[in-house]
Design brief:
The complex is a heterodimer of chains A (236) and B (315).
Chain A lengths: L1 H16 L1 H24 L6 H29 L1 H7 L4 H22 L1 H10 L4 H27 L4 H17 L9 H10 L1 H9 L5 H23 L5
Chain B lengths: L1 E10 L2 E11 L4 E5 L6 H8 L7 E6 L2 E2 L4 H7 E4 L11 H11 L4 H15 L14 H13 L5 E5 L7 H15 L3 E6 L2 H7 L2 E6 L2 E6 L1 H9 L1 E8 L3 H9 L6 E5 L6 E8 L5 H11 L3 E7 L3 H16 L1
Parallel strand pairs in B: 3-8, 3-9, 6-7, 7-8
Antiparallel strand pairs in B: 1-2, 1-4, 4-5, 9-10, 11-13, 11-14, 12-13
Helix pairs in contact in B: 4-5
Classes of the chains: A mainly alpha (236), B alpha/beta (315).
């Protein structure tokens, strides 16, 4: 635990010491701000449906941007060699770094409360939906980040890490959008595997263990794979 | 103590380290000497558990790197080549971070950090980002992180690269001092460095250890010959002829000089001192001696011939 915390602290500090975190958060807020605002100004509706509908899509681009450097950069600069020869487990490195990315996501989400508060002043928001929505966003974001960690662990090129993460996430995202083309017996499998499908459930305010289980298993397996990728040193 | 038993490491079929075995005892400083890409770094990386060997076993204090990696890593301080350290951290934060990963706490942590700052001379740069430091300072930060937990085993990959001459002397003294009670392996391609610091030398070339022993053993035992250089004021032919006729002179060559004397290089069997007989010869013939010195075959010669010989035998 202590090692995880040490890594976490170091990574959070380096996020906020560099402009990258501020740029990512700013752009995230600009994008989401637009979608929080469209309902209000264009459709005269004080609700968050559009926002919660769009943010999962925005996440597809922003989560890989957050995770891409975490391991790829250490591989590129060689600092990984020192890190993995300290007496820490590979899994502790992965989890510590993952949590730091999650922290950045949480910070970005906290800032969107300004929008939520603004909307709630103009109309009645369904509290359950808001809480469910945010909880879902956090879970879904965490799943994306875990996939991003894996992508970052398999390469030393940040751009490659970004693209690989984006493609994997996009496939998971699309799964319940293409059900129309899927043979009937496979439909429920594809639906269950879709990241967005579970988010829709949670953002309605319904928290089901099946959905939680889904997210936690995506996170767990992605981090497990990331940890394996890290342990596989070159030359093996 | 570090034991390597028949270690081989291949990268996609090519052997970077080829069936090497050696043991380093506590209190020994092993200088790992070899040309670039000889397998020094790969060997170190296997001992530090950074990568597993393709075959063979490595025991560190009796523990296998494949099984007790975590425990082994606790005991090792490692400075990789080029000292890869986070450029966006400042020196103080970095030392703090490393000491936490090394599980140092409270006063021990503070005093160890303070000691490392003093030993490695980091006072002036504590608040600076590591990315902005000169190469020498970065190297010193690297040394500090390797020694911060006072490890029993130190593996240093080219520890003095980029340091200025004064720092080099300081760091060598430090390594020598540490080496009295620890197990130290340092790799280098600087020959004077091993002569100055190491109690034992292993020369590695193309993944194989081609020589292993004390520095003086290596330079003496290699050719088995003593070399004497002398400048005399004498007629050239007569001098060479007389010297060649001396008892024990195995090979005599003329060496160029710049002061009108005749220079000779005289090789004799190891242990046979030719100075006295050369002096007697000079006195008999009334040839003034301007200069006379013995020359041990330098480590450099040993190194060059060993590493080039095996190059030649392969081609």
């Amino acid at each position: 635990m202590r090692n995880i915390f040490t890594i976490f602290k170091k990574e959070v500090r380096s996020y906020f010491n560099s402009p990258a975190a501020y740029i990512v958060v700013t752009f995230f807020l600009l994008f989401t701000g637009y979608f929080f605002g469209t309902n209000l100004f264009l459709m005269n509706q004080a609700n968050l449906r559009t926002a919660f509908g769009i943010i999962p899509l925005v996440f597809i681009f922003f989560m890989p941007a957050i995770t891409m450097r975490l391991i790829a950069e250490e591989k590129k600069t060689g600092t990984i060699e020192l890190l993995v020869t300290y007496p820490i487990k590979d899994s502790e490195i992965i989890v510590g770094k993952f949590l730091s990315a999650l922290m950045l996501l949480a910070v970005a989400l906290v800032f969107t409360w300004f929008y939520v508060i603004t909307v709630s002043l103009l109309g009645n928001l369904d509290g359950g939906q808001v809480i469910g929505g945010y909880f879902g966003l956090l879970l879904m974001g965490a799943a994306y980040l875990a996939i991003g960690m894996f992508a970052s662990a398999i390469t030393e090129n940040q751009i490659v890490a970004f693209i690989v993460a984006l493609v994997i996430i996009f496939v998971f995202f699309l799964m319940d959008k293409i059900l129309f083309f899927i043979p009937a017996p496979l439909v429920s499998i594809f639906q269950y595997l879709s990241i967005d499908y579970h988010f829709e459930n949670i953002s309605r305010g319904v928290i089901d263990t099946r959905d939680l289980l889904y997210y936690f298993s995506v996170i767990f397996f992605s981090l497990l794979l990331a940890s394996h990728a890290l342990g596989r040193r070159k030359g093996d | 103590m570090i034991e390597l038993k028949r270690i081989t490491k291949s990268y996609s079929g090519k052997k970077a380290v080829d069936d090497i075995s050696f043991t380093v005892e506590r209190g020994e400083i092993l200088g790992f000497l070899g040309p670039n890409a000889a397998g020094k770094t790969t060997t170190m990386r296997m001992i530090t558990c950074y990568m597993p060997p393709t075959s063979g076993t490595i025991l560190v204090d009796g523990m296998d790197t494949g099984e007790d990696s975590l425990e082994i890593r606790k005991r090792i301080g490692y400075l990789p080549e080029m000292a890869p350290i986070y450029p966006d951290m400042n020196v103080m934060d970095y030392l703090d971070y490393v000491s936490e990963l090394r599980r140092l706490e409270g006063d021990t942590k503070k005093s160890r950090i303070r000691e490392m700052i003093a030993v490695c001379g980091l006072d002036d740069v504590l608040g600076q980002d590591i990315g902005q430091l000169s190469k020498g300072y970065r190297q010193r930060v690297g040394l500090a992180q390797a020694m911060i937990h006072d490890p029993d085993i130190l593996l240093l990959d080219e520890p003095t690269a980029g340091l200025d001459p004064n720092q080099i002397v300081e760091i060598r003294e430090l390594i020598k001092r540490l080496g009295q009670e620890k197990t130290v392996i340092l790799s280098t391609h600087i020959l004077t460095e091993v002569q100055a610091t190491c109690s034992r030398i292993a020369i590695i070339n193309r993944g194989k250890i081609v020589a292993d022993g004390k520095p003086e053993e290596l330079s003496a035992g290699f050719h088995g010959r003593a070399v004497l250089l002398a400048h005399l004021k004498a007629p050239r032919e007569a001098l060479l002829e007389k010297v060649r006729a001396m008892d024990g002179a195995e090979e005599v060559r003329e060496m160029p000089t710049d002061d009108g004397t005749v220079g000779i290089r005289l090789e004799s069997p190891f242990g046979k001192d030719m100075r006295e007989s050369l002096w007697k010869l000079a006195v008999e013939e009334n040839w003034p001696i301007f200069e006379m010195r013995r020359e041990a075959l330098s480590l450099e010669d040993v190194f060059r011939s060993l590493t080039q010989e095996s190059d030649a035998s392969l081609s």
